[in-house]
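Researcher: We're teaching a course module on how sequence relates to structure. For the next exercise, students receive a sequence and then see the predicted structure as tokens, so they can try to spot secondary structure elements on their own. Here is the exercise chain.
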Amino acid sequence: MTDIQASEPTEHSQDNVPENEIVALRRQRLLDLQRAGRDPFAQTRYDRTHLANEIITNFETLDGTTVSIAGRLKSKRGQGKIAFADLWDDSGKIQVIAQLDRLGADNIEEFLSLDLGDIIGARGEVMKTRRGEVSVALTEFTLLATSVQPPPEKYHGLSDVETRFRQRYADLIANPEVGELFRKRSGIVRAMRQFLDARGFVEVETPMMQSIAGGAAARPFITHHNALDIDLYLRIAPELYLKRLVVGGLERVYEINRNFRNEGVDTRHNPEFTMMELYQAYADYHDMMNLTEAMIAHMAETVNGTLQCTYGEHTIDLTPPWRRVTMRELVKEAIDLEIRGGRDLVTAFENNVEHTLIQPTFVTDFPIEVSPLAKRKADEPQLTYRFEVFIGGGEIGNAFSELNDPLDQEKRFREQAAQKAGGDEEAQAYDADYVRALQYGLPPTGGLGIGIDRLVMLLTNNQSIREIILFPLLKPENL
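Model: And here is the predicted structure for the students to work with:
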């Protein structure tokens, strides 16, 4: 251990300078470096031996050894013979120390001239200060990229929501917790894949540009293919393609995919979003309930280490089994009115029940009018073997016992086509090839779609979908 004592932060030379002047000063510094033959952007790579967190975690082993690190300078303090800075890389931060007796007069002067936000490669000895902070005492450093724009947290902060989403790069620089959020999102998706792969599901890819927009009730985005001179649709769902694969003999398939729906933007909707859809032959919607609660419980345990999660003001218990109740029963409980079916039942549910379903709940038996791809109930043909799962007052997923009767499916497609012709832009399109596929024989099949964005919101306690999408859709910026 050395007797080096970290100094208190000192005022940066550019404090209280208007930002446009700061940018001008930094641009001039870059030009001066380039004219002097010291272009920081000439570097093509840098060999580093360790990440910041590795050094801190393994200090007892690395104490006194020489390491090479690289990252962005987010704070700098000291002057004269010694200076301190915090260097941030993908794993976190570590303090670096520049001393006159190690670097020499010219190099320490150059270190002191570095701007916050600059990216450097650095080599030095692992040690601790008297305050016990693991640090790297520099023997050399290299400027790898200079920051012309000042780092946001130093000059104007980055708390404005619109700016954070529009300039996600600056958000990630200013707010390390944002990076942790998206690492957790990656872990959630990875846990989902592990769960499904372990159960024999095959991950596949289906078209994102489709000649017929089907598989969900939604308004599509339209594009045009010049060579074929045809209109195409960005997919609203992969459902019909995935079920074609089950017809062909791939009995367990899933896809983690981007879907596109030409709809409004709010805290739970982004026109471009991520879904997981799966289909399992010889299964029904009861099997899909079992799979859903087991999969989400596995994901929560994997990424959070617990089946209890906080969402807003609520504590939610994800421990299976979850409540299973019909839509009709829930509406009766809420408004003491027996509605036998149809769109009136769905409207009553959406207005009076949906937002109250905080703990995990499977809402079953949707009317056939809103379920054109789900199998009819044998004892109540006006209803279907369909459920939606609700957690935290919102829908997380949707599932059916899939309709596999080609004659019934053709009839429902024609009914949907008539609604579309009447002006319903969200009605299902008639897909003759899908009907033909069903004519080859689709076994009894359970299907499930999970909104990954909404699931990430739940497992990270975020009430806005824009927080958990790296680049949410925003109005154009006037630059």
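Model: If you want an answer key for the exercise: The chain has a mean pLDDT of 92. The first helix runs from residue 19 to 35.
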